[in-house]
Amino acid sequence: MEDKIITISLPSDLYEYLENESQYQGNLKDKIQIYLSIGMFVTRTLSLKRAAKYADMDESDFIKLLGKHKISIFGSAEEITIDYINA
């Protein structure tokens, strides 16, 4: 897959937060990729496997990261119930 280069404008306080944020290792690009991957997983835009790949992590590390943020890999109780009913 070919990478695309984009330019974005960030509010200075958000930029400074990302630059100084030490929860994730790496440069600004790496941190943004992690946050974007988490967000896209939470909204179910990306599967767990793809979100982990785009965050440049293996699945088990990505699952641990989600756990730190109290994000379930199974979705909400409502989503689980709907899946069960539709199975």
Written overview of the protein:
With about 90 residues, the chain is an all-alpha fold. It has one domain.
Features:
mainly alpha, 87 residues, single chain, 59% helix, 5 helices
Layout: helices, strands, pairs:
Layout: H1 12-20, H2 28-42, H3 48-54, H4 59-68, H5 77-86
Helix pairs in contact: 2-3, 3-4
Kindly summarize this structure in a few lines.
The chain has 87 residues and is mostly helical. It is 59% helix and 0% strand. The longest helix is centred in the middle third of the chain and has 15 residues, at 28-42.
Number of helices: 5
Strand content: under 5%
Distance between the termini: 34 Å
Main β-sheet description? none
- Uncertain segments are none
Count of individual beta strands: 0
Kindly report the average pLDDT value.
Answer: 87
- When the domains are counted, the total is 1
Radius of gyration over all CA atoms, rounded: 15 Å
> What structural class do the secondary elements suggest?
mainly alpha
Order of helices and strands: HHHHH
Outline: elongated
User: What is the percent of helical residues?
Assistant: 55-70%
